[in-house]
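SEQUENCE, STRUCTURE TOKENS:
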Amino acid sequence: MATVNQAEENASTILGGQGFAVERLERADGDPGKRADFRVTYGAETYVLEVTSKEETQDFHRFAAELRTKGIATMTAPPCYNNSIDGILRRKHDQIVQTPTAAEAFGIIWIELLHDDGHFIAEVIEHTVYGLAELFACEEGHCFPFRDFRCYYYDHYSFYRMPRANGVMVLTKKGCRLFVNAKAENYSVFKGSRLYRLLKPGMIDPEREAEEKRCMLLGPEVDRQGQHAKWEYLKRTYGYLTTRKLEGRFSGAIMIDADSLPPAIINNRDCQQHSEGQQE
């Protein structure tokens, strides 16, 4: 796993390469408060950046160990709200809040996941910050066809208690992705920022998806523990009857002795990668 220092260096290099000026924030002697890692500027814009990294899950470590000892392994895991990640995010948010800066500064939490379990952990972070649920939906009186909807804020979600964080950026082997906090105090201003525009093609922004009628949003007044209350709200608001999908991630791998394979197979990159997919 990358150390936090490596993650900080990578964040500084990547943002610097996009024209941002990156300055490390040092805590003054005798100052008991915690601080974010960097002040980032672009023209008149100011960002407060807190950087961390997250290692592979225990399930992935068990999967890798089984593969090494048995030569074959499988793993299933659901991407869902995670209390540990929620705690990490809220502590990082507290550091942003305690950082002396201009009131209009944007707060960003950067999480590096440059390992083989990074894509899955990014999904878990997405479910945690948004209380995300995948739903089947159909119009009342019509069992078919079903439609697929993502519903944000369906469960308890971290962004509700992170008003100074404009987003969480995750860096995986597939690149950077921004999870936008539409509940942030200065969300409307952040939408005009350089960072928002830069990452817009692949970002997640529930409000933008809702405007394009590509998702559902559960209202803040609805009890997250009341399944019928959630069902009634979505029916009243969107006109659909809904049921939640069962989500899961399946991975499988086989260890192959390359010396026993013809060169044509060894050179086929698709044969060297383990299969991974999503079950619903």
